[in-house]
Design brief:
It is built from 17 helices and 14 strands. By secondary structure, it is of the alpha+beta class. The protein folds into 3 domains: 280 residues, Butyryl-CoA Dehydrogenase, subunit A, domain 2 (Beta Barrel), CATH 2.40.110; 165 residues, Up-down Bundle (Butyryl-CoA Dehydrogenase, subunit A, domain 3); 32 residues. The strands form 4 sheets. The protein has a 6-stranded mixed sheet with strand order 2-1-10-11-7-6, with no helix packed on it. Strands 5-8-9-12 form a 4-stranded mixed sheet. The longest helix has 31 residues. The chain starts with 5 loop residues before the first helix and ends with a helix.
């Protein structure tokens, strides 16, 4: 079937009736439920955009010939990498870069998994076939996905098998002729319950040993599978109108704890079963982490452009753009943006075919970007707060402006250099929702931990960085200096 529309996305969610809990209650229909309906509507718009801009968003299926989502495409050339990125950024513009788990993120992972399917044969030949067929299934049916990577935070000083309650984390509890039974908890499924299926994969950061084989799993199942529950955190979509909460009312994706209670996974949906070695190597050796990082960096460029636009709009609104310290802060955002663009350009134009036949961006550039941006984003948010200053506290609601008694007072009293009070407050409410609301604070926290603990990631980056050639240059220089001294005597 061809790429789905927004209506088809909504119809699937209604029909699936996924087992999702929010604010202590089971949700009957996510498409109309407070705290969820805003982001569901935004997701539907993403799918509709595929048909509004088919020249950017769609390509011909290699199997059916139908028009399908280009973010599923296995690129074979640099031009095709750029094509995928253009589609990624088209979606990101729609969400201002604020939907970190828009469908393209996991579409990239599924594509890499399918292209490198033979990797999974190390565990069992059938797992390779499963990975290949699942990619085709997801691509041809435009499956939307959530995923879960990490175990609950019980005692991080111990391995999973050493935990006092070792069965709290998702683990394999039974192998049957027709599949496996799994039980336990996993974190932290963004968009959990408002997608078609869930991918369970190993962490990209924390390695496991053989004694953790029972926890070393990779599989995909429908979100309405019996025994599967999504327990969502408090929604940061407060049910306010889009004027008062312009971002959280649209793009609050939610994050969910995922509970597996005697969940059956058929063998044809299993990719890794009880093998910590394969789990430890999956993301890197399949190059999934490279293609997912490419999506993230592409999205974060759009997000940074949006932050820059907000910052410049605040400067214009209150006439502070001539001050040195203000220009310096704007420059910080600009430099971050241009550095990210440079990383992306290098990654794309240095791409090479990997052993799976996929044109793969240069990982070094993307790895640098994904380690650097999480440390920069909190500063970008801080700059918006500094520029807005007290204006981010004095932000009446639309109801205040609609009031015949006080509306005219704040219309005049909160005017800016070039905006009336209504327009200025609308801008400042946007800046507030971007950085100071519960939604905005979550954005900062989310970016900081996007790929995992930045300290652990930095240690891995340091350990894997090619150091020998720079150290050798120092040794060569010292040797040449010594020879020069001796010859001078």
């Amino acid at each position: 079937m061809p790429a789905k529309t927004g209506k088809e996305y909504l119809d699937r969610l209604k029909k699936a009736n996924n087992n999702i809990y929010l604010h202590g209650k089971r949700v009957d229909d996510v498409t109309g439920y407070p705290g969820l309906k805003g982001v569901v509507k935004s997701m539907a718009k993403l799918y509709d955009l595929q048909y509004e801009k088919p020249e950017i968003m769609l390509f011909n299926s290699p199997t059916s010939g139908e028009k399908i989502g280009i973010t599923f495409m296995q690129p074979k050339t640099i031009d095709e990498i750029i094509q995928r990125r253009q589609a990624i950024q088209e979606w990101a513009i729609t969400s201002c870069g604020l939907m970190g788990r828009s469908p393209d993120y996991l579409n990239a992972e599924v594509m890499a998994m399918g292209a490198s399917s033979s990797f999974f044969a190390e565990g069992d030949p059938m797992f390779a076939e499963n990975a290949k067929l699942y990619y085709e299934y997801a691509r041809e049916n435009d499956i939307s996905l959530t995923h879960t990577l990490i175990h609950p935070q019980v005692n991080r000083s111990k391995a999973q098998h050493e935990q006092e309650d070792a069965n709290v984390a998702l683990c394999l509890t039974e192998k049957r002729s027709d599949g496996i039974i799994v039980n336990g908890i996993r974190l932290l499924a963004t968009q959990g319950g408002i997608t078609d299926e869930i991918l369970v994969f190993p962490s990209t950061v924390k390695k496991a040993g053989e004694k953790d084989d029972a926890y070393s799993l990779a599989f995909a199942i429908p979100n309405n599978t019996a025994g599967l529950k999504f327990i969502s955190r408090e929604s940061f979509d407060c049910g306010k109108n889009e004027w008062d909460h312009p971002l959280s009312s649209r793009f609050e994706e939610g994050d969910a704890i995922v509970s597996f209670e005697n969940v059956f996974v058929p063998w044809d949906r299993v990719f890794v079963c009880g093998n910590s070695s394969i789990c430890n190597r999956t993301f890197r050796e399949t190059n999934a982490v490279v293609h997912m990082s490419h999506q993230v960096v592409s999205k974060n460029i759009i997000k940074t452009e949006f932050l820059l636009g907000v910052a410049l709009s605040i400067m214009d609104a209150i006439g502070i753009d001539q001050f040195q310290h203000v220009k310096e802060k704007g420059t910080e955002i600009m430099l971050t943006l241009e550095a990210m663009k440079s990383h992306l350009y290098r990654a794309e134009h240095n791409a090479k075919l990997d052993k799976w036949g996929t044109m793969t961006p240069e990982y070094a550039a993307l790895d640098a970007a994904r380690n650097w941006y999480p440390k920069m984003y909190p500063r970008l948010a801080e700059i918006i707060r500094i520029l807005g200053a007290s204006g981010l506290m004095g932000i009446p609601t639309k109801e205040d402006f609609d009031s015949e008694e006080i509306g005219p007072l704040i219309q005049r009293g909160l005017q800016g250099k070039s905006l009336d009070g209504y327009e200025k407050v609308q801008l400042f409410r946007l800046a507030w929702d971007l950085t100071l609301s519960s939604f905005g604070s979550r954005q900062t926290h989310y970016e900081y931990y996007f790929f995992g603990d930045p300290i652990r990631m930095g240690m891995t980056y340091f350990d894997n960085y090619e150091k020998d050639y720079v150290k050798q240059r120092v040794q060569d220089f010292l040797k040449s200096a010594t020879k020069h001294d001796i010859s001078a005597i």
